[in-house]
Structures are given as C-alpha cells and as structure tokens.
C-alpha cells in the first residue's frame, strides 16, 4: 500500500444550517478540514495509506480534530500537538443567486501557523512515504510555515518522494502577486506534479498569452509550465459558476501528453474541497500510472462528485466514482 | 365506505438527514413504510377504509410501527404480532448527479418474512372487504410469504373481492427472471387489476416486441397482458430520471380503452413510494368507476405529487390532488 | 439618521422543517414577522432608525416577539403591551410543483386586532419620525384596526411625515372587493407613496384597461393612480411563478418618470416577505432621493435577494445588495 | 373488548426544548393532548377500545391532531370536523426550583369550545360503549360545552353506560367557586365514579372538615361524597411538590371499602397528564372488577410511571406497569 | 428610566449539546455573552435602560452578536465596530461528578482586547447615564483594556456616575496575584460599590484573617474593605459545589449595615453568569434604595434563579423573581 | 507503546433522544460500540496502541462503523470485511424510576456472528501484540464465534500474550447456566486476568458460599477463582442501582493481594459500557504494574467517570481521570 503525505493546516468549519445566517440561527454544524486533509481523505478512500503532517493545539479542540481526521481514514501520527489555538471559519451557505459567506477567526495565531521548522523531524516524518503534497495556502499563511513548506519539499525531493503542489492562490492571504511570485516559482521548481490555473500563470507568474479564451489559455500555458519548471504532470480545471449549477472541465498534461476531460454541468451541494478532490484524483492517476486521459477523466469525476457530497473532504471510494463514471445516472441504488 | 385491504411487509426506514452519509452523521430520521402501507396510506386519505394484513414483531419496534401506521389512517387490526425482528433499510439521500443509496438489514428474518400461511385466518382477514392489493416484493422475499400471497389472492378472488397486483420487480430479491416467471403468471391470473411496466413484460414474462420506443412497447403490451391474463384493468408508467428532475407518463387500459396521461417533468423530494401512489390512484379510479382517461390522469397526478412530499407513504387527499390538477401552480395557499 | 415608522400586526410564524407536513413532524421552527416588521427590518439594515407601532400581548409570547424584533434592529418602544393573544400562522413549505400551505390561528382575537384607537397616543408615537408605512392587511383585519390605520395616516400627514401604503390585498380577509374599495381609496388619498399591482387597480379600484398584457396594464395604470390620488411615487411588481423559480420585474413612477427594472429569474428559498423587501427598497429610494431608475433597480434587487434568505424579514444590508447588483454571481466570499 | 368513551377538547402543546424560554429558542416540539385524550391513551394501552368525542377544525391542524390521536390508539370516528381554530398552549419547562410556565392561545374560540349540542348525535356517539369519561375542564370552558357535558352524561347514564367524572378544577377558567358549584354538583349526581381532591370538596362543594391533615381530610370526605352523590367509586390523590421530585399517594373508596396506596417519591420528567393516568387506572380497576386495594395500587403506579414518560398522554401498557410494580427498580432491560 | 452602563468584552459561547464532548458531537449551540452583557441583561429585565460599552469586529460575527445583545434588551449604540476577531469559548457541559470544560480561542486578539483608549469617546459614552459597571476580567485581558477600564472608571466617577466593580478574579489571565494587586486596589478606590469574595481579599489584597470559617471571613473582611476603599456597598457570596447541586449564601454591607441572606441549596442547569446575576441584583438594590436585607435577599434570589435558566445571561424579570421569593415552589403556572 | 487487542462484535446503537419512546419520536442518535470496542476505547485514551479483531459487513454500515472506531482511536486493520449485516440495538432511555429498554435486531445473523474460524489469520492478527481481551458476550452469541474465542485465546496464550476475560454474562443469550459453564471454565483456564462477579461464581460456576453479603461473597470467591484457574489477577465490582444514582465498589486480587476501592455514589448519564471501562482500568493497572490498590482505585474511578459521559465507549484520558481522583469535584474548568 503506497503511502501519501500531505502538509497543511487543519481548520474547524462551523456552518449555519438550513441557509440561515449567524444572526438567525442558534445552532452550528462543525467538522474539521483543510486542503491537505481533503486531498488525503480522497486518497484514503481510494486505498492509499495517508498521513498528515500538521500541528494541532494541545486541548479539547485538537483532540476533536484528531479524532475527526482518524475517522476520515488519515493517520494522525505525524501531527504535532502543542500551542493553544486552531484556525476556524464560519460558513453561511448561499442559496441560488446569493453567495456563501466565510468568516475566519485569527488563523495566523493557530498552533500550525505559529509552528517552527525545528519542530518537524524530517527523518521521522518522511520515512516510508512515496508522495508528499503541498498547497499554496500553506505558502501564504505565515513566514515560518512558508519556510517549512520549502524545507519539507526540498528534503522530500532529495529522499526520492514525488512532490505535488496545488497553486490554490488565496488573494486575501497575500499582500500582492509580486510577494507570492518567488515562493510559487520555488515550489514549482521543487515539484514533480502541479495543479495550476490559467489565472495563476497570468497573475502570479506574470506570464502573457495571446489567447483570450480560458480553455486556450490553459492549452497554451500547461506545456510552458511543464517545461519551465521541469514538471512531469501539470493539471488544472476551468470552472464556471451559475446559480443553478457549475460547469467544470479538466486539463492534464502528463509526459507531454495534453488532454482534457468532457465538460460537466451539475448542481452543487457543498463547493468547498472540490478542488482538493481534483488534486487527489490527479495524484491517484499518477500513482496508478493511468494515461493522461484516464487521469483527467477520473480527477474531474472525483471533483464533480465531491460537489454533491456534504463537507469539505471527499468521501467517495474508487468503486463509487468509477460506477458513476461508467453508468448513466441512477436514481436509487437498492 | 368501501374497504380496501393490502398484504405486505412493514419496514423501518432510517434516513440520514441533510444529504450526509452514514459516516458523516450522528442522527437518523425514521418512519415505517412498505408497498402495501403506501398504497393504503393514499387510499385512506381519499376516504376509504383501509386495513393492512401483515405481521410485526412483539416488541417496541412493532409497537412503534403499529402506532405509525394508525397515524397514517390504516386499521392495524389485521396485523399479526409475534416474532422478534422487522425489516429495515438505511437511506442515504443522493443529491443532483449522486444517487441515493439503500442498505438493507436482514429482512428475510423478519416476523413478516418468517410468518406461515396457517397464521392467517382467511375468514377474519377478508371479512367485509371489497378489494385486496398485492405487490411483487411480497412474492419475492421468502417461499412461505410467496405461498401466503397466492393463497390469499385465490381466497379473496373466490370471495368476490377485486384483486390488484403491482408487479414491482426487485432484481436483487430473485435469483433470475426465470425463477420469478411462474409466480408472476400465477398472480396475474388471479388478479383483476395489475400495474406493470414494459420491462416486466420483456424480462419476467419473456415476451417480445418489435417496438424499440418505450411508449410504443407499453401500448403494444398492455392489451396483450389484459387478454392473456383476463385483466379488466392494466396500468403502468414510464419514468425517466435526470439529476434535475424526473419525467413521468402514465398508461391505463380499462375495459379495452387504452389511454395515456400527459407527461410531467418535475423536481423530486422523495422518490420512494411514488409508484405505490400511482397504484393507489388506479385503485381509486376503478372503485369510483372513473373513465380510463380520468383514472390515468388522477393516478399519475397522485404519483407526481407524492414525489414532492416527505416520506414513502402518500399523504395527499383527493381535494389536494384535484385542486393541483385543475389549477396552475400556486405558490402559497393562504 | 432618519426615522421610519410602520404600523402593523406582529405574527408568530411556526414552520414545519424539511418540507414535511404537520402530520409528519414533531418539530417547528418559529419566528416573528408581519408586513410592517418586514419593511422596517430591511430599512434597519440600510441604516435607518426604525420603530414599529403595534400591540403585543402581556405574556411570554409577547416578550419573545419583542426580543425578536429588537434582534432585527427595530425599536419596540412604540409597541403597546396588553391583552392575551397574538396572531399565528403555521407554514408547511411546498416543494417543486407542490404549493406551500398556510394555516392561521384566530388572528382577529389578537391583542393587535382588538386594540382601540384611543390606546394610541399620536403625539408620542409620531414624534421625531420622517416616514410612516401602512399596508392593506391592517386595513382588512378588524373595523377598529381599520379605523386606527386611517386616523394614524391622517395625523401623520398633518404632521408632515411621508405616508406610504402597500395595497397588499388579501382576498380571504375581505367579504368582497366592494367592501375594500372605499378604504383603499381613502388610504391612497392619504398616501404620498404607494405600492400597487395591476390586479389591485382592476379588482379593488374597479378600473378598466384595454391592455391584456400585465406589463402594459402596469404602464397604463401607474400614471392614472398617481394622478387620481395625487401620489408622488407609485410602484409595483409583476411576478410569475414556476416550480423551478420565480420571475420578477419592478415598475416605479416617480415624479412623472415611469421606469422598469430588468427581469430576474431565480430559485426561491423563502417567498414570504419578499414584497415587503420591495416596499422597503422603494422607501429607501425616495428617502435617498434616488432616481426613478435607481429606485426600481434597488427595490427589485432587494426583493429578489430576500427570496434567497431564510425568514419573512429582509436581512441584507445596503452593501450586500449593492455588491450583488454590481457584480456577477460569486460563489463563495472568503 | 370493552369500549370506553371520553368527551373533551384536543389541544396542541408547543414545548420549548432543553429548558430554554420562548425568547431564547427558535424551535418547538409539538404534540396533541387533552384530559380526555390522556385518559383514553392509557386505557388504549391497557387493551380497551377507546373513542374520543370532540371537535377539531377542518384544516391541516385538525388533520395533524387526528393523525396523532390515532397514533395513540384512539378511534377518531366520533370527532366532529368543522370550524377554524384549535386550542393551543406553549410550555416552557421549569428546572429545579424554577416552575414550568404555560401560555394559552384563545382556546375559547376553538372549534370544540364553540361547538353546539345539536352537532352531537347521541345515538351514534354512545352506541356500543360501556363507559364515558368527563372532566371538569370541559365544564369550565364555555356555556355551550358545559351544556353538552351535562346532556351527554345524562343521556349516557340513561343508556346504561358507566359515567366517570374527574373534578380537575382549573381556577383561571371560572369566575368563582360559587359559579362552578352547581355544575359540579350536577355532574357528581350523574356520575358513577369520580376523581376528586380534598381541595375540591372544601372549595367547590364548600364543605367543612375538622381535619387539618390532608390525608385525614381525604378519609373524611370520600365516604361523604360517595353517599351524597350516590357514587360507587370515589378516588383521589395527594401530591406534594419539591424541586427534586414529587410525593404521591392515592385513595380509593369502592363499594364502601376505603383504602390508600403506599406513598411514592420520585423525580419528574413530564408532569402534565399524570392525573389523567390516575383516572385511567381507576377506570381500569372498575372495569376489571379489581378490589379497592388493587385499584388504588394500579392507578397510583400508572400515575407515577406517567410522570417519567415524555408527553401528556400515558403510554405504558398493563404489562409494563405491572412489572414495574412487582419488581424492584431495574436499570436496563436487555 | 435610569440608565446603567457596563464595560466589557462580548464573547461567543459554543456549547456541545446533551452532555457530549467535542469529539462526539457534530453540532453546537451558540449565544453571545460576557460579564458586562450578563449584568445588563438582568437589569434590562428589571426595567432599566442598559447600554454596553464594548467593541465588536466589523464582520458577520459582530453583526450576529449585536443582534443577540439587542434581543437581550441592551442598547448597542455604544459598541464600537472594527477589527476582525472576537473572543470565543467552547463549553462541554459536565454531568454529575464530571466537571464542565471550557476551551478558549485566542481572545487576546479580539477586537475588544486590541481596542485602544482613544477609540472611546468619553463624552458620548457616558452621557445620560447613572451607573457604570466593570469587572475584573476586563482588568486582566490586555494592558490596553486595563488602561481603558481605569480611565473610564475615573472619568465616570468624575461625572457623578455610580461606579461598581465585580472583582471576578480569573487566575489563568494573570501571571500572579501580585501582578493583579495594584490594579484591583486602583479599581476598588474608584468604585462606590463592589462585589468581592473572601478569597479575593486573602489572595489579591493579600490580607490576613484569624477566621477559618468562610462565612466569618466574609464578615471580617467586608467592613474592612468598605472602610479601606471608601465603598458605600460591599457584597459577596459563598458558594459550595456538590454533584447534585450548589449551596449559595449572600452577604451585603450597605452604609455600615452588614447582613446576609438565607442559604439556598438547588440543582444547577447553567452555572455561567450566575455571579453576574448577583451583581445585577445588588445594583438594583442600590438604585432602588432597598435596605441591606432586601438587597441581599433579592440579589441572591436572582442568582439562584439564574442557575436554573439556560444561557449565561439572566433572563428573569422583577415580577418573576419576586413571585418566586414570596411563594413556595410551584410546579406549573397555568 | 504497548499494543492491546480485543476480540468482539461491533454493534450499532440507535438511541431515541430526550427520554422519548420509539412510538413518540421521529429521530434517533446512533453510534457504534461493543464490549471489545469499549475496552479498547478507554485504553486508547490512556495511550496504548489498540486494535480490534472483528468482522464488519462489506457495505455502508460497515464503512460507517469502521470510521467511527478509528475516531475512537482504534486500529481497524484487523477487522475483516464481508457479509451483509451487523448487530443493532435500539435504546429507549429510562428516567428516574423508569428503566431503559433495549430492543435488539437479529444479531446472530451479523457478519461477525456468522464469521468462521478459518477467516481469522492468527499470525497476522496476533503479531506484535502484548495483550488480548475477550468477553462473555462473544462466548454466547453463536457456536462458531464461541469456537473462535477459544481458539484465539489459546493461540494468544501460546504466543505469550496476556489474556484477559470479562465474564459479562447475558442470560438471554444462553439457554441455561449449565450450557455456559464449560465454556466459561475453558476461558477462565486460558486467561491470566479475569473480571467476574459473585453472581457469576454462584450461577455459572455453580459454586457455593456461606456468605450472604455480596461484598463478603466477593472476598470469598476471588481467591478461589484465582487459585482454581491459576489467574494472576481477578477483579470485579458490586453495583447497586437506585433511581437517583448508582453505588459502585471495586475489588481486585492481584498476585495474592486482595483489596477494594472506596464506594462511590453518583448520578448516571449513560450506563452502558461502564463495566468495560472497569475492565480497561484493570488492564491498564496490570500493564503499568500498579499495585493492587492503585489498580482497583483507577479502574473504579474510570468506571464511575464513564457513567457520566455520553455513549458506550469510555472517552476520558489518564490525566482527566487522575485529576478527578485527586481533586475534589470542580464545577467548571476554565
């Protein structure tokens, strides 16, 4: 059983039920997630051994988060415990033409965001693993975490793990694109596999294209990214959002083979984490040595499916996704 | 007030709320249903005296089921009590392109499925009734229940009750279509009224048709079924399923008059039991001596409406359905 | 900060959750609303000082209602307390093609509906206010409330407040259109601003038009209403209802300038109170001295947005509505 | 199976969960009860055929109430339907030293309280019954219901039914004890069996006693009541209330034999309806021809047990109560 | 109507329902409270005009908190808005011999704890008020809030407001008693009324006593405190905690008159905020010019009662508390 | 980190909330437990590596159970997957003098109860473990499980694991004590550590004692059991049950040293699994080489504490229990 690591923050999500706002309700549903958690949750359901590298506070919230992650199938043996706080976000779900609203607590004070490079024992953390995944959010939160990301990626690469990096740019966490640029370039150089959008290429890498159509921009940028940063796999999606559903299409360039999935149009139950489901699907495709086309088909299907399940973390197994891909829509399985 | 009987199992439905899965939730909503229960629930709302012939365990679950059925308007005086278990199913509701998933407990060990013919006192059970309804699920569950179905139907026919039979084929409960064929033929021979699909004719009865269009297959098969088995009424629906709603169209052949309803396209709240609502509508049409066209119109409307109400058992009365049929969609009734 | 008053009943709404009926559930969600409450709730979120003139029973239900209204941002200092009862309505939410159903308790016996003109101290109630809003429901409930409406409106006009009147005709509360006609004419004569539909003009005012198209009827009637009753602003909407969403378009005639908004098509979470959101939007437009076009754009946007939020009372602030108007649909704000 | 009738109002109970107040919550739990409902609910669980004579509004609330009562095991075939309203009460549960608070809606306007004698067809209603039960609340609500109570009791007595009457005096529903006195005397004269407290004798009947101890007062009054009104059975309880539980002791005089139960001390889950459980126990004792001692033992046990179950209506069967009486406290039955 | 101010932080309480832990649940109940909020909530129910001086973040959490406080009856016009975060605490309720557990988020980063003296406009904030209340928690959180507390108290005293101070020492928020001592002495010097315990005197003030009995220590310290700091009123309680309930006794020294209440023993629903209920009771006693004995009786009754109501903030009115004090325990009020 | 195994069934618990019955509710809370699960849950919180040997159905219920167990901290790598069904029980919680009621589904048909010895690969399952725990329920359910228990215990003993056995006799699962006797004797012979009650000695082992007092019977039997079956540790508790709480006292004989704990009296939140908490405490005592007195003190404290936490499975860690033992009751920890 191959072993996949991810590095990233664990956050508590506190969601107002039934489309009400924080002013209207008295009740919240909560769960624990994070970009790394979500990628590993999907991979765990596909049968991989998964382990999260993170830090949780040494209190009841940290205990609850740890139990939740174990329930998702992740090993929590590489989660440091210490400090007092964890990042949280409140989610007021939108309806139809009304957007969802996310309100964060002070995540920069979290045990994870305050953790220091020297707390992470590379030898122990990386032992026995085949793959390690990072995302752009970790790169953004605090200088010390940024440092840990680069150090872990470099060390992992040195030890022969495959390194994947999901650009996942969050504008509010950076002062400017220019601030982000060197760090993204560093991580793209260290990575073997990356998930990136045409927007990332334009804004973060500050690249230009003559194309105005988003699909063509993707087709333009993906090979350049692969070449520039010596990446074996580059993947991304184009999403369009409408009140009654989303459109999603995936692109994968693998060993020079550039392909795209068919387009999906579908209603959305829970949007958060669906990008991580795509990343997990790509990782699975590479680990299983699927073709470029098989990889993008699976990764997009995993992502579409994740839009229809509750919570941030993908919960569908290989069989469930594959049956859904192969068969037409079935109403009730009994 | 005319009295309608149905024979069938009572099952406990345990539903994960809010589109979550069993892994994600800590809470279930439950109710009690079953094909016979659902048919009678609708007929009870239309003003008929309804009585279920079944068996429930002699414990708290049986008590709770009995109370629930009384709340639906069914007489429970013909429900045997004894044994220990009842059939249950867990429902994880799908969303959009994701299907619902049903997980059964060991229903074959239920008090009903283990009940024996000699426990059922024909004289008492059939006394004072005008109609008795059966469905193909009862025919499938266990050999002893299969025997009871046929014996009850034969005895009811002898005593002058109208016998209806809803084919309602469940592939997982039979080893093969061939195993089912003689039993279905037996029940169709005993019945005066049946609900059947073109798939049932092709697969169970092993009939052939030159038509490839489903509607034309229905129009081809219904008269043949009526003639072959000497049925006064044959009815069925064609359903198509899409993530954003269902399409439904009904067909009724009554005393040689073959008609169909208009097609409906509608979003679905709760799919289970909507076929039973159609069966109940057909029974109402026959008991009220409605025309073939009035019957199919009402039965399909009852079925469409049942897709929009919570739970397996239809809960709308005659007035509610008729107002809905007659008027265009009204938003709030106040 | 300008001060807006409204006169109207506070009602308790008791809603069956999750699309179930009163027979199927054991749980209700409740809140407190009313046409005047809803108009003021929206205006309170836009930054106005709002005060409701009403009467609540001197018991725990009245206490709970008062606390709820304060939570919405209304001043409750002009709410009389006394009597025993309050109006309530039970809401069974429809789904898709199934309509919502509202069942009222005996609201005519409520503390508000039984209140007498002499309980209302004009000097205190109207002090310091710029605007007072009334609606046709108050005109309908009981003779004494009808008398209070007209007396308050006349007194407010005399003191220089702007008077607005939303026709809001409820057929079940009147014996006939003829009974309503003189009272509506009286209120339109006292008002400076009114919200009215083409149906109101045809049925209540008993006016005729050659137009058959609803939009053209609006364009025909609005200027006539403005002239006949000497109203500076006349506004209204045309709504069409379909199972998968509503269509809404607004019309405003302001100082002779007749304009309409664009048409919206949108899915609906909670329909009740969306007309009050439109009224609040019109009042805001007049108080801010917006153009006719700006007024109708804002008022319709506020109304569409209110269809997507839980509860009867609009809860969105100026910034939230304006951002929604200006930007295309955004999925998650984080 | 002997058939027991009761006459009385059906009320909707709306309860704030988890000890919160109406100001603090957004959710209510609801059920339907009433003194007659509660007595019959218990008797239904003991195996009697039970039927309620009442009136419910012809709307969704009436439908929901009827379904609930059927779920309790009552026949609803003698419930008139018509009118618009039903009585309701809001329950804010006390905790420890804090009392529960009940807030009523306008029950005097309910379909039941407004029903007229001529709506009740004696021949149909009383047919086939062995017993009819009344309570003092029905005597109090409105003059027309008062008239129905007396007429039904007289007619029942004439037809040979046993008549029971639970004094159940509610001070807030009467102007004075003096107003109640002639009506209580009338009902005591018509009854064969009554439930009464020493307080009722002192305040309503205006009787005197030299005893100051409540138990001695009971022992003093019960024989006098039996003689004065020619009652074969007179029963009552003495209750004392403390924050951590209640004390209860029962008294029964049957055919001249005066006995009392042992005293119970017990914590209370739901107090409402426990007096009706005692009345039901007494009725069972008389119908089963139990001795005076057996009757009071069972009736008090049924009442104590009803304090420990959720809701107003007793839900325990004979076996459950008898096992509890016979055995010492058992922790879990598995 | 006299106007009472309080200065203090507003916190979000997130409570796991039904005695579960954060690991076991998926749901939280939330509300907003704080020591100042609680004191004003009680006073608001007694009929005073109440206004909180605080700061809330300029986001959806701040909006929700503001709406909640208005629902409690507080004016929120003196609450600054700005910054991003608010203090939160998670509550896992104990049961029987198991203690409740509180886990805080990083409250020191809250908008309130980071607010600066210059943001508070004394002229506006103190205008029209008769009284201002502070508590020891505000003194503890951050140096800037500590500075605001002292400045506000001094300014209020100068303007003739009565100043009250509840010592409310929280060991975890201070490095040592010695660190707290000068600040407590400063506030006691500025205050007219204080709430203090014998433990505060011993540990914070570092006073000595020969008494070992807690009651005698109180009687020893209270006059000394009054003299030393020139306080007109000094009040405190002695609490003892047992699994099945608490014991509470109050002490008030007012204008040299030292009295105590009777002792109460009672089961507890919600402990948090009961000390603030005592403080509010003392303030009421002083504002109403009640005697020392009346004051302590009322304040302790208000505190005991607050242990029996849900939430941190007292919700009982004068009438409710006084009826409870005057009458023996009543079971249901209907 | 020492590794502890347990063998036993995983059951689904479905609990009616808020003291209602299955007839009264529409909602259930569910979790997964079992005697082995509970023992390991406690040990996992104490820091041991824990692994359950069991079998779960290859469906969504099995998935949900597996996720739940991982959340408790158990390794699920030794849980076989296959078959269709799992054991379930419905829990209706008692209140005060009313007992809880448990209703089982057909557990004998569960994947676990139908599993065969040959499915269990001893080499894999027992590898790396220090201890294995069994309980009498596994011995009772089906002949094949009985066989597995004995085979696993024998094999474990052979490989040098410590074997513990909790007698945990369930009368309903055996035909007679005589049927159980040889199997219990077999397991006691194989075990190194056992948990047993004086009732087990009398009824199952058919031993006699002159003592009539339960404590003295324990003191009489424990040494005999130790000698007869060559057990290094024998432990047990005496429990007495009353409506307002339980009494518990523990006994441990370890290496010839017979001691008992102090007696506890405490209110109970959730009784199920508290015996397993005692067993886990004893195992901890032995693994940590605690003295006889320390072991019994800790084991009883763990058991008492488990009565106060929600769910079957102990959730308290070492620190939490030890702090509770050492300190007097603390009300809120903040």
UniProtKB/TrEMBL annotation, chains A, B, C, D, E, F:
Source organism of this protein record: Kroppenstedtia sanguinis
Protein name: Sugar kinase
Residue ranges constituting the Carbohydrate kinase PfkB domain according to the UniProt record: 1-312
PANTHER family the UniProt entry points to: 2-DEHYDRO-3-DEOXYGLUCONOKINASE_2-DEHYDRO-3-DEOXYGALACTONOKINASE, SUGAR KINASE
Keyword match Transferase: yes
GO MF terms held by the record: kinase activity
Record keywords, A-Z: Kinase, Transferase
Family, per entry: Belongs to the carbohydrate kinase PfkB family.
């Amino acid at each position: 059983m191959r072993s996949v690591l991810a590095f990233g923050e664990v956050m508590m999500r506190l969601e107002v039920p039934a489309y009400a706002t924080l002013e209207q309700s008295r009740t919240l549903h909560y769960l624990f997630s994070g970009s790394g958690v979500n990628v590993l949750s999907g991979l765990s359901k596909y049968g991989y051994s998964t382990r999260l590298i993170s830090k949780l506070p040494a209190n009841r919230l940290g205990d609850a988060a740890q139990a939740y992650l174990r329930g998702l199938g992740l090993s929590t043996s590489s989660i440091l415990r210490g400090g007092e706080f964890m990042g949280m976000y409140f989610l007021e779900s939108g309806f139809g033409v009304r957007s969802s609203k996310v309100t964060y607590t002070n995540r920069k004070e979290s045990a994870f965001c305050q953790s220091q490079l020297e707390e992470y024992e590379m030898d122990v953390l990386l032992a026995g693993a085949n793959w390690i995944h990072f995302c752009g959010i970790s790169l953004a939160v605090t200088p010390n975490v940024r440092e840990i990301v680069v150090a872990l990626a470099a060390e992992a690469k040195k030890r022969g793990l495959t390194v994947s990096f999901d650009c996942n740019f969050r504008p509010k966490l950076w002062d400017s694109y220019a601030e982000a640029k060197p760090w993204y370039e560093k991580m793209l150089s260290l990575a073997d596999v990356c998930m990136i959008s045409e927007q990332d290429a334009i804004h973060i890498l500050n690249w230009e294209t003559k194309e105005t159509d988003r699909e063509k921009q993707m087709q333009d940028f993906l090979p350049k990214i692969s070449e520039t940063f010596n990446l074996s796999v580059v993947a991304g999606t184009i999403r369009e959002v409408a009140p009654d559903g989303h459109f999603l299409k995936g692109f994968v360039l693998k060993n020079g083979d550039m392909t795209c999935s068919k387009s999906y149009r579908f209603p959305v139950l829970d949007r958060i984490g669906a990008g991580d489901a795509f990343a997990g699907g790509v990782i699975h495709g590479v680990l299983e040595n699927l073709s470029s086309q098989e990889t993008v088909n699976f990764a997009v299907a995993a992502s579409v499916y994740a839009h229809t399940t509750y919570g941030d973390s993908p919960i569908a197994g290989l069989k469930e996704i594959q049956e859904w891909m192969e068969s037409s829509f079935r109403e009730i399985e009994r």
